[in-house]
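Example 9 (inverse folding). The structure is encoded as follows.
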């Protein structure tokens, strides 16, 4: 079987954008390796789990959550490069976005080469939705693929047309969608015509939900996403999208 390395920016990104693909690949016998650039130390503790005086930092907590999520997705190896989270605005002076891209690419390339990976998964050129660390994942990932001479590179993205349709459908059912979400949707992902690889992960949405639940600081048990009925959760998360670098033919799987 083949090996795929998935490169992400922060803990929980792996679930949101590629969790179903990872679970499916592992279930089909492929080796799945997860590399995360940061520990998400600038993320919020939305569940209020970090008790004052406990001594546990956000980074430590999110690292534990990442490891739990990776296990639930069938990940064989989980590595963290250890760069600092740049924050949503990329303002952190020592964040990943400020890191020397060539040095970061060399570190990632070593893992890819050591694994003799057939596939490297990164983000599209806008980092899916513009987060500075995500854009850096794209840049570093492209260079790492060159250094490791990786046969296939897929850029994780979102089908913007599908996303806008889902939001419109939600509104027809009377679900309130805030303006911030609507603005985000307009700029997230790419137009459907750019997508080369559409993967059905509907059989693995429960693994994806379980992995999402492992990220308790980001998705508390009361989270609206976690509370979605299975049909709705499958509708939202049952498909994942990629752009194959240099690819033209439409595909439904990474291999």
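The amino acid assigned to each position is listed next.
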């Amino acid at each position: 079987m083949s090996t795929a390395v998935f490169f992400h920016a922060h803990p929980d990104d792996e679930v949101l954008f590629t969790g179903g693909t990872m679970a499916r690949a592992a279930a089909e016998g492929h080796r799945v390796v997860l590399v995360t650039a940061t520990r998400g130390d600038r993320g919020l503790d939305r569940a209020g789990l970090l008790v004052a005086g406990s001594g546990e930092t956000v980074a430590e907590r999110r690292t534990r959550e990442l490891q739990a999520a990776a296990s639930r997705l069938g990940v064989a190896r989980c590595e963290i490069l250890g760069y600092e989270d740049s924050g949503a605005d990329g303002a952190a002076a020592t964040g990943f976005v400020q890191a020397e891209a060539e040095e970061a690419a060399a570190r990632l390339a070593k893992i890819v080469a050591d694994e003799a990976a057939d596939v490297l998964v990164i983000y599209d050129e806008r980092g899916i939705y513009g987060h500075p660390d995500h854009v850096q994942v794209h840049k570093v990932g492209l260079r790492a693929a060159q250094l490791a001479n990786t046969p296939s590179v897929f850029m994780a993205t979102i089908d913007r047309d599908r996303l806008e349709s889902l939001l419109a459908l939600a509104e027809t059912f009377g679900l309130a969608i805030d303006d911030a979400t609507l603005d985000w949707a307009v700029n997230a992902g790419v137009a459907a015509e750019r997508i080369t690889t559409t993967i059905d992960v509907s059989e693995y949405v429960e693994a994806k939900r379980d992995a999402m639940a492992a990220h308790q600081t980001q998705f508390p048990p009361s989270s609206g996403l976690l509370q979605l009925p299975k049909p709705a959760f499958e509708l939202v998360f049952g498909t994942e999208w990629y752009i194959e670098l240099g690819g033209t033919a439409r595909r439904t799987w990474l291999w």
